[in-house]
Amino acid sequence: IRNINWRIGHKEIDIVAEKSGRIHIVEVRSLNSSFFERRPCDTINHAKQRNLIAAAHAYIRYYKLEMEVQLDVVSIIFSGSEHTLEYLPNAIYPKA
Predict the structure, then answer these.
(1) pLDDT tens for each residue of 21-37
(2) If you write DSSP's letter for every residue of the chain in order, what string do you get?
(3) Which one of 15, 34, 50, 51 is at 20 to 30 Å from 72 when CA atoms are compared?
């Protein structure tokens, strides 16, 4: 893990990790189990995706990195004192 809650201006990245020469930009989303009709990752709308992509670009420019970037999501569902965690690699794709 390179950074947690990295910010620049109004942009924020929950987790920045590096593995095998690749930067992983990770969005963490959570919901209470009472919202059973939706998964936390389903709450990432187009505006949030654009913000996350812009934040990823800013991070790469700030640190002058020349690495592949992958946008992942960690989805957490809380149910009382229990929780379920789901890791979704490559969950967000920048539009060309």
Answers:
(1) 999 999 999 888 765 56
(2) --EEEEEETTEEEEEEEEETTEEEEEEEEEEEGGGTTS-GGGG--HHHHHHHHHHHHHHHHHHT--SEEEEEEEEEEEETTEEEEEEEEEEE----
(3) 34
The CA distances from residue 36 to 58, 79, 82, in Å, are 35, 10, 15
Query: Which of 5, 10, 28, 2 lies closest to 91 in space, CA to CA?
Result: 28
List 70's β-bridge partners, or say none: 24
The residue whose two tokens read 């929780």 is 83
CA dist 43 and 48 (Å) reads 9
- pLDDT tens digit string along 36-73? 566 777 778 888 899 999 999 999 999 999 999 999 99
